[in-house]
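Q: NOL11 protein, please. Structure only.
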Amino acid sequence: ISDQKPLGCWSVKHGQILTCPVVCNFETHEYIAVHDDKVLRIWKDEDINLDKAFKATLSADVYRIHSLPQGGPLVLFRGGGVRTLDVLLEAPQQEIENVISGEVIRWSGAFMEGQQPVLIFTTEKDGDFFVYVQKPKLSSLHKYKLEQQESAKPLCFTAHLTNQTVTLLCLYSNDSVYQILIPLQQHTEEEEEEEEILSKSLLLNLSVSGTVLKGTSLVVLDKDHVAVLGSLATPQKEPRECLTIWNTKFQTLQTSKELPLGTSGQLWCYEEKFFLIHGKVLTVILYKCETSSLAAAVGKLKDSQTPDVSLFLNWNTLEDEELVVSFQSQEPVALKAESRMSLRSRRSSVAEEQPATVSVGQLLLNLKGASTYVFENELKKLMAKAPTPDLQATIGCVLTALTDRCKRNPKYYPQNFLQQIVETHDLSYSLCPDLMAVALEKKDMPLLQMCLERFPDIPEEVTYTCLKSFLSMSEAHLQTLDVNVDSVICYIDIESDDKEVKTEIVENGFSAEMDQDMCDTKLPKESHFRSDGESCPVGLQKAALLNAVLHSAYTETFLLPHLKNLPAQQAILFLRYLYYLYVKCSEKVNTTLPGVRSPTINQIMDWMCLLLDSQFTVMVMLPEAKELLSNLHKFVRAQVRFYSELNKIEGSLQELQRLNHLRESQTYSIEVLEII
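A: Structure for NOL11 protein:
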């Protein structure tokens, strides 16, 4: 999510429906899905086609799969039966018992109690709610009935396990959160004949000064804090969706944030991160809960050095214009003023009186109106003194500040400063997504080259935009730029008149006379590209930039749609260059080009296949591409024949190698072996 880059995409067939959330098996690193209620699918990252993945048809409908880090996946069926995945796969058609009768499952959760997995789920029948607690490996099952609440019913549930006690939290329709304690130690005994009624206690009223929160989703953060997603209903105002954090120990609203684009009503929490749908995007918000204190809960912390900060929550992932840091690794002291920004106004004197405690984000905001000289000097100081754990995040903020100033002031562009930062630090695209966009706008080809060579997470759309920009730029203009040509200088020789020196080419298994009858069409005389692939179709600088594109990581599924939009003439030029590289690689016994960051044979072949897949119809229709495709076909066919001949004598060569090992090294002899 931090890289904003799709890593994989799998689809079921038309007409099939995924009927429960997909989970990851932590032990085997596999994905587990269920479609059409009964069909189980298991696959790994490298699997491309979901239809060819492992398939098992079960005997009963699945409600949900829960994956535990140390307990393996648990499968909960709609009838209340539970199986571990291992047991289920031994006999997929095994009969699954119906634990519930006429009830509908409303929620389920799974936990580890020591080495034993525990599954808890709630059901509803005729307005009554029930709680089931199961230990699948011990075949233990216990059923409870929830105490009824007049004029209110449960909307959602969440739970956590502490000291062999399940704490079940219920968000009710009367805008209150109730707590129910369920001890586990008694579940080792025999089941009781009569179901036990669970009593509940009021934990929290979701109202502050007459404003009521109509909650839709509830998650537990720690023993003293919960998060509720819902709508704030204020008298004479439209309801506003927001995310709120509550201190259950002191019954206070800790902080809140409006979500003006709307949500799906669902909130997830995992490893101190919130996940929610805000508008059309998935938003991730970092948080950290620390020791709760009354002073922090009511916003009366006087000493900024007090370690008991009740909550740090970084809301700034929701703000487009904010420069405040979007990472959690800052020291808590430095971010205390920001953590309560929605409850109390920040004191402007903090930055002046206590400069040592100013956050990175606040410092960047203070520099927003500074002169260019002061601005850049302060940023250099900030990077120089940033602690090692926070260095990358700090540099990301610095790059964001620089690109924001570039967008506000079109005349400002610190080319050398940006190149220096990218060249000297191990960065990624996600740290500053606007950097490459600004570089493309300014036509800063050297900086784009650095980013393509160094960033591991560039989106395919940006890679395509860079490729199109490189191919469209004139050779004359590129010669004026300081492009790094280390990746091409060792295999492209340039004469003083900027024409390539002709070198003798001896391809692996390719004969210039071979297959001459395949195509008699000649390239136009004005073309600089020869049919034998000897001449490089692009200049030194453009070749270096295209090599940077070849080094960029991509996912084929997401790159192909963009490559289809590449103009035909640019596609042909790029294919000519790839063919040239392919021939160059084939000259070498180890198929490796000399130079620093030179493309590999696999990268060249992959991009050639991508380009042909996306542009094949265009290539076939264009007359100027006919001989290029013909020559490429002849060369590849010659390569296939050559390696096919090598494969035929592979057994004989291995036998020779075995005989050499058997001979005595001291004996001198001359032997003639005939290979039939």
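A: Brief note, in case it's useful. The radius of gyration is 33 Å.
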